[in-house]
Amino acid sequence: MKIVFIGSGNLATNLGKALYRAGHEILQVYSRTAENADDFAELFECSATTDIYNIRCDADIYIFSVKDSVLERLANCVADSITDKLFVHTAGSMPMDVLPVKRRGVLYPMQTFSKRREVDFSVIPTFVEAENEDDLQLLKTLAESITESVYVLDSEKRKNLHLSAVFCCNFVNHCYRLGEKVLDGIPFSVMLPLIDETARKVHEMTPSDAQTGPAIRWDENVIENQMMMLDNKPEMKTIYEQLSKSIHNDKL
Amino acid sequence: MKIVFIGSGNLATNLGKALYRAGHEILQVYSRTAENADDFAELFECSATTDIYNIRCDADIYIFSVKDSVLERLANCVADSITDKLFVHTAGSMPMDVLPVKRRGVLYPMQTFSKRREVDFSVIPTFVEAENEDDLQLLKTLAESITESVYVLDSEKRKNLHLSAVFCCNFVNHCYRLGEKVLDGIPFSVMLPLIDETARKVHEMTPSDAQTGPAIRWDENVIENQMMMLDNKPEMKTIYEQLSKSIHNDKL
User: Fold this and answer.
1) Does residue A190 sit in the same domain as residue A247?
2) Is B115's pLDDT higher than 80?
3) Are residues B146 and B177 in the same domain?
4) Do A110 and B175 touch (CB under 8 A)?
5) Which of A139, A191, A245, B1 has its CA 20 to 30 A from that of A52?
6) Final residue of a domain: which of A153, A186, A208?
7) What does the pLDDT read at residue A118?
């Protein structure tokens, strides 16, 4: 398929790579900054623009992969001149109907993307939705050309998925960060086998069954001592208390 | 070495397996409940007792792997009759000096153990400490017979390590649990590729560099909408708010 990308961030770059490798043709990329647009264009041998009113009209599909806050505005700009093509966004928490065209859809690859790190797109669960049945089939085919896990999911359910992703990824990663902060000189790398096993365990058992540690045993002695260690870090102390109570309450 | 185990829980069972396979001789196990003691004894072809005053005196090392709250009491019971042997405990957050004998030490394998799940002990970072130099060498040798990662760490530093483990494992696992709760019928298995990538990422970059999502971008629109979705789950809503603020503050 012939594709135009609006946006050149982490998700756009990783998705672009996967589509390019699968043999799709990327015609053009729009980015607010010339440098990002040029980097992206070089990667995919396509043209670049920083003018949202200068989007080519000969693509099959327009993929909007931009910040949620500018998505609607940029889609409206493009829809000024292009009205009969399929518009798709990649945002977990935005409904499909922010796109102001009849042929619209969503392609949400649920993963944490960083530009520096290459990911294996073929195992990324990707959730698609479209306004009409033909476009849904088209989006499924497109998604299946880059990943083995394609699901049809509506905007309402996708909100649940995105909230879950915030807990399972962003909050998890922040717990790693907080764990790193208390190590006091011990290198963070010693935590990696524990981090890996914690992730592996929930492949085999539910998170509830996998839980261990002072909070699930409600070992008040350890909990009190550890909270005392956080006396000079009030924000972390609150988080420690909240999460410990939540672990304990979940068992009841 | 000839070993007596006091305790037959998750950690004792996994440590016992590793030591047994490495060719050490487990002479006896004590457990409060006959069933647990017998299960352990069968696994390691050793004798079992439920009487803490009936511990054999011919072992080289006595490994206490019991709940923190009963550790000191049980060690005192054994020390009534055995005074010249090496006592070791396996607890992350207990100081070495709760053991009431001259020859004492700690062997803390930092991992999350569940009886149902076999772990590869050879990659588990294990932290040792001993009152005297000879016993420290002995513990290092013992630990090196079952794992490639052996570190000498004193009781004070081990407290930091254990607190970090609570964040990197127990709290992380609870975030998985909370993520599962909001999925509303979508199977938890769709989250596993994201969970795995989140863990893999911090092998290559710091948790701060790895962070993504609405909180680090401080996307107020998404944050507000997601908090509204948790209106009927006040405990989760508080956790969502606390962790989002903490992610945001960490960047400043």
Assistant:
1) yes
2) no
3) no
4) no
5) A139
6) A153
7) 82
Q: pLDDT of A119-150, one tens digit each? A: 889 999 999 999 999 999 999 999 999 999 99
Residues B246 and B180 in one domain: yes
Q: How many domains does chain A have?
A: 2
% residues pLDDT > 90 (chain B): 91
Gap from B135 CA to chain A (nearest CA, Å): 23
Residues B30 and B124 placed together within one structural domain of the fold: yes
Does B148 lie in the same domain as B46?
Answer: yes
Can you tell me whether residue A61 is helix, strand or coil?
strand
pLDDT tens across A156-184, in order? 999 999 999 999 999 999 999 999 999 99
Cα–Cα nearest to B11, from A207, A213, A209: A213
Domain boundary among A120, A138, A153: A153
What's A100's domain CATH number?
A: 3.40.50.720
Q: Which CATH number is A230's domain given?
A: 1.10.1040.20
Show residues of chain A in contact with B148, CB under 8 Å.
Answer: none
User: Helix A172-181 and helix B234-251: axis angle, to 10°?
Assistant: 60
**From CA B155, how far away is CA B222, in angstroms rounded?**
44
* A207/B177 Cβ within 8 A: yes
Residue position matching structure tokens 């060498």: B137
In this structure, are B118 and B230 located in the same domain? no
Tell me, yes or no, whether A138 and A165 share the same domain: no
3-class DSSP state of B182: coil
CA angle B128, B134, B135 (to 5 degrees): 40
Q: What is the pLDDT of residue B10?
A: 87
Rounded to two decimals, the ipTM of the complex is 0.92
Q: What is the mean pLDDT of residues B157-163?
A: 96
User: Ramachandran region of residue B113, left (φ > 0), alpha (ψ -120 to 50) or beta?
Assistant: beta
Whole-number Å distance between alpha carbons of A29 and A63: 10
Pairing mode of beta strands A104-109, A126-130: antiparallel
Closest CA to B106 of B10, B36, B170, B15: B15
- The alpha carbon of A236 is separated from its chain's Cα centroid by a whole number of angstroms, namely 26
CB contact (8 A) between residue B151 and residue A222: no
pTM of the model: 0.91
* A162: chain B residues, CB-CB within 8 Å: 226
